[in-house]
Structure formats: structure tokens, C-alpha cells
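Entry 14. Structure prediction run on the chain below.
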Amino acid sequence: MALRTVKSLLVASFSLFAIVFSAPALAQDSARHEAAAENHEAAGHETKKEGFDAADVIFGHILDNHEYHFTEYHDAEGNVHHVSIPLPIILYSKERGFAAFMSSRFEHGAAYNGYKIREGSKMDGEKIVAVKEDGSEDASIKVWDLSMTRNVVQMLIALSVLVWLMVSMANAYKKGLGVKTAPKGRQNLLEPIVTFVRDEVAKPNLGHKYEKYLPYLLTTFFFILINNIFGLIPGTANVTGNIAFTVVLGLISFVVILFSTNSHFWGHIFNPPGVPGFVKFILVPVEFLGVFIKPVALIIRLFANMVAGHIIIICLISLIFIFGQMNGAAGWGTSPVAIGFTVFIYMIEVLVAFLQAFIFTNLTAVFIGAAFEGEHHEEAAHH
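Output returned:
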């Protein structure tokens, strides 16, 4: 009974909220669009959507970019100034050769050195194209973009941090720290993680061969983890939420799995034992496709989980601006709720950063172990 009463109160409150704020918001929105339409009609321009666009913010964060963009502000004269870190632009075309400059040259959509950034759809993002002297796009020139985008820069930073952590930890062990004495500093942080990957991922799935694959598993785990954590810092890129990044990781795991297979593995795929002949016509193609589906599962799982969390966080923050456009009081009223849920989801994303690194590494170990599983049966039969 109490639950039904609470539900009724919530419905009534939301209905009252919608009635109070929707009418002024619709009136303001209608007046704004009419004024904008009149101004554009008088200037001879097409009508353009104004206001906050959550889709632009979401895809701007997920997609790659040629700069680290943090915010923007208007000066006293109304000019827009962007707060960002430009990145190197490296281009090559057969007709014009190599060109290198900073992305700040493209500020405000300007063309530089015969190139400019063309704004594509929300899904495609921006693309650098060659332009003619009059500023129009020159489709006859093929441009190869070798620029240091924010995903590339962030991966290099993550790689540098990974190498620094592991080398400094190894040097500490060489000096006897953590061997003759108790571990200190970074060793206290990393040693339990290394031990966990060894004892809970490598040994159970790879058996006596765990030492052969442990360096690869540790590298994969820490590289994904560092990129996941960096992606949670405001203003940075979501590298693990880029499908190209996860595809490369999946392909590397696929190569390692293939090189770990043996005749027993392929025999079970193309000639499953104990299966009637007419069933093999169905089972063999399914088993063969499974060889390729495994790395695809690794690719999609990491990509989807890391993208989903970032989209949810941005959507929750966007609610403040969406309701603020409707009505100032609605924007302020939505802020505490949106921020509270954002902090909650952010804490979950920290957990997901560790969890997805573990899942990718663990599934890779499972697939590698399955590739040479027949060797365990042969050894058991021999003994």
C-alpha cells in the first residue's frame, strides 16, 4: 500500500513539473525559433539548429580528434575562444608531398597550407581534405592523414607509463628490494596485481605453460587498465572506447591463439570425435566460425562496455543543460540529481576499468588454453 502511494506521488509530482515548465519552455522555444527564422530569412541563410546539442558532445568525446579540447569562453566582444591543446598534423599527398604543422592552424575552420578540416556527420567526425586556392575541396588529391591524434598521443603516454612502471619495478627487484626486504612504493601497488594475474588467470587456464604466456597477459592487462583509467580523466580521450584500438588488441590475441594451436585442436574442429556423420555437416562450420568469433567477442566486449559508461555519464551531465534551456529553475533543480548519479556511475566506471582489463586478459588465457588443451589429455593418457 505504501509503495503504491509513493508511486502515485511521484507520478503526480512529475506531471505537475511537466505542466508548469513545459508551457513557458515551449513558448520560449517557439519565439526563439521564429526570431531565428526571421533573421536567417532576412540574411538569406538556411535555418540552423541552435542551443545545446548532446549528440555533438557525446560523439565529440567518443570519436578521435586532432586536439585536446577542454572548454570555450566568450570575451567582452562576444568572440569565442577555445581552451585546448593542439596536436601535430602530419599529412602526405602524392601531389604535394609531406606537410607538418600544429592543429591550431585550423582554428575557426580556416584553411592552411592547402588543407582544411571538413566537418562530417556525427558518426564520421572530422576529416582533413585538400582545398583549392578559392577554399573549395579538391577531391582529386588523396590525403593520407598521419597526424598525432589524441588517441595516438594518449596510447603513447599509456605505453610510456607502463614501461616506466615495469622497468622501475624490475630495477627495484635487482637491488634486492622486495626480495630480501619487504616491497615498498610501487611494488606494494603492482605486486599483488601481478600475483593475481599469475595465480588466478595464467595458472588455471594455461597449466604448466603459464610462464610462456604470462608476459603477454600482464602486458595486455596493464595496457588496457592504464588506458581505461586515463579515459576517466575529464578532457582526455576514451582510447579503449575506440573500435580501432580494440580491433588491434583482438587481432594480436587471435595471432597468439592460432600459434598456440596443435593437431588435436584442429582435429576436433574438422572431425569432431563421437559425432554422427550427418551432424558434422552442421557442427564443423560452426566450430570453424568459432575460431574467428572468439577474438570478435573480445573486441566487441571491451569496446561496448567502455563506450557505454562514457555515454551514460555525458548524458547525465547533458540533462542539466537540456532542462536549463527549457527553464532556468528546471536546470538548477536537475543539477543535484544529475551530478549525484554521475558520481555514482563514475565510481562504477572505475570498477569497470579494472573489470574489463581482467575479463579481456582472462578470456584470452581461456582461448589460448583451449588451443592446446589436447596436450593435457595426451599427457594424462601417457601417465
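The chain is about 65% helix and 10% strand.
Filed with the rest of this week's runs.
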